[in-house]
Design brief:
Elements (H helix, E strand, L loop, with lengths): L1 H11 L13 H16 L3 E4 L5 E4 L6 E6 L12 H14 L3 E5 L7 H9 L6 E7 L4 H4 L4 E7 L1 E10 L3 E2 L11 H17 L5 E3 L3 E4 L5 E2 L2 E10 L2 H11 L5 E3 L2 E2 L2 H13 L5 E5 L4 H7 L3 E7 L16 H20 L3
Parallel strand pairs: 3-4, 3-5, 5-16, 6-15
Antiparallel strand pairs: 1-2, 2-4, 6-14, 6-16, 7-12, 7-13, 8-11, 9-12, 10-12
Helix pairs in contact: 1-3, 3-10, 8-10
The chain binds zinc ion (ZN).
């Protein structure tokens, strides 16, 4: 399959180990040049916009966009981002419609899609993104493909626990004010708060203990909190249950009903169950959807428990072929609806 060869070509850039196309950098640039060649071979009119994003337009319904990103984290995997672009080129050629886009710098904060949205330049009417699932849901449900309902929102902040530092040997257990023991209880409560809300997750990834001596009772502890949920109401409830005052918050974004519906219909047409799931990671489709562009995402099953941002990313050739089929049919359907 041509698209598998192209994924290999992109993966080989930088010489390994893993995919090495961080933004900005020569690896990402080389990938953009390769993709530009493939777009032009597909009969698309190639253009680089003033934000550095690569576009390949067909003459039919260029306002319907399909694509993803070509940059990776250092030592990334074969599928994250690249799959959405090479499959998009395939779909646009087969459907004879649409515009393929490769956005710049998704892994470092959706640089290209943010710049496009902020610039006031014309936006697509519809955006469709195929991406590898970065979790285990589809594999658990025995489904090769899934339709994304929305992109989770997140809130991040810190909690500080104060106690009284003291000598670890001479202070009796009774009457101690150990800040880390307080924090430990809170960390368990954070886990339980997230577990009790549908689709919510919460993580404590950093713990800083003061004064930090092996023989000193902790006097103060600072923990980080990363809380995520698929809708704003659940995120509010999670943040309230944790009791954190978020320093940073990004709202959840729902995918467009029309694109979700079109993807589900095409899955059904192939006799596949239309498993729906939220995305726990951010994507260019979320940036476009947040500004009102009708957007949708199709996920391909990970065969490795959802490992991504790693050379261990794995999806089967069969699942990738199915994904291209559904992407093409959906692009056709969304274009036809616009005539
Ligand atoms: Zn990605």
């Amino acid at each position: 399959m041509r698209i598998l060869e192209r994924l290999e070509q992109l993966y080989a850039i930088g010489g390994g180990p893993g995919a090495n196309r961080p933004h900005p950098g020569p690896g990402e640039d080389e990938a953009f040049e390769l993709a530009a060649g493939w777009m032009s071979d597909a009969g698309l009119e190639v253009e680089v916009d003033r934000h550095g994003n690569l576009l390949g337009r067909s003459s039919e319904h260029p306002e319907v966009w399909v694509g993803s990103h070509l940059d990776t984290v250092p030592q990334g995997g074969k599928f994250d981002g690249a799959l959405g672009v090479v499959a998009g080129i395939e779909a646009a050629e087969l459907a004879g419609a649409g515009t393929v886009v490769a956005f710049r710098g998704e892994e470092v904060g959706c640089v290209g899609s943010h710049a496009l949205v902020a610039s006031g330049d014309p936006l697509p009417a519809v955006f469709l993104e195929l991406h590898v699932e970065q979790g285990p849901v589809l594999a658990d449900r025995d489904a090769p493909l899934g339709v994304v309902t929305g992109i989770v929102g997140y809130a991040r902040g810190e909690l500080v626990f104060r106690g009284r530092a003291g000598h670890a040997g001479t202070t009796p257990m009774e009457g101690r004010e150990d800040a880390l023991v307080g924090a430990a209880g809170a960390i368990l409560a954070i886990r339980d708060a997230a577990a009790g809300l549908d689709g919510a997750v919460a993580t404590v990834g950093q713990v800083a203990v003061e004064p930090g001596g092996v023989n000193v009772i902790p006097g103060s502890v600072r923990i980080s909190v990363d809380a995520r949920a698929p809708d704003a109401e659940t995120l509010d409830r999670l943040v309230a249950a944790i009791g954190v005052d978020p320093a940073q918050r990004t709202e959840p974004v729902a995918m467009g009903a029309r694109v979700r519906g079109a993807l589900s219909e095409e899955l059904a047409a192939l006799g596949l169950s239309a498993v729906e799931l939220p995305s726990g990671a951010g994507h260019d489709a979320g940036i476009l959807a947040a500004t009102g562009v009708e957007s949708g995402m199709l996920f391909v099953r990970s065969l490795n428990g959802g490992v991504s941002h790693s050379p261990d990313e794995l999806s089967s050739d069969e699942d990738v072929a199915l994904a291209v089929e559904v992407l093409t049919a959906t692009l056709r359907r969304l274009s036809a609806r616009r005539t």
